[in-house]
């Protein structure tokens, strides 16, 4: 019996470069597995899949190695923050 394939997207973005990869993966594929299969690490070697935060439709996934994907899910690999958002907000407020 053949595994049913589902369509998902895996995305990663920098300010100057972004990629969206469409994949067809077997049902039961996890967020982490889709990120691995996307090949984005070859284009963005700075990505460390073991430590990179990942999400689905802008919502952080706490356990990407166990979170199973559904048809048309959009996996997002997040890059590290350059600055703490709270501190940046406070700095902007102080300047005003």
From TrEMBL:
InterPro entries: Mopterin_synth/thiamin_S_b, RnfH, RnfH_sf. Belongs to the UPF0125 (RnfH) family. This is UPF0125 protein BTE48_11695.
């Amino acid at each position: 019996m053949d595994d049913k394939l589902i369509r998902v997207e895996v995305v990663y973005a920098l300010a100057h470069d972004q990629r969206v990869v469409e994949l067809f993966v077997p049902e039961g594929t996890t967020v982490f597995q889709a990120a691995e299969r996307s090949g984005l690490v070859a284009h963005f070697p700075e990505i460390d899949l073991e430590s990179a935060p990942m999400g689905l439709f802008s919502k952080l996934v706490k356990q990407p190695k166990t979170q199973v994907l559904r048809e048309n899910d959009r996996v997002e690999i997040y890059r590290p923050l350059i600055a703490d958002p709270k501190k940046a907000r406070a700095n902007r407020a102080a300047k005003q």
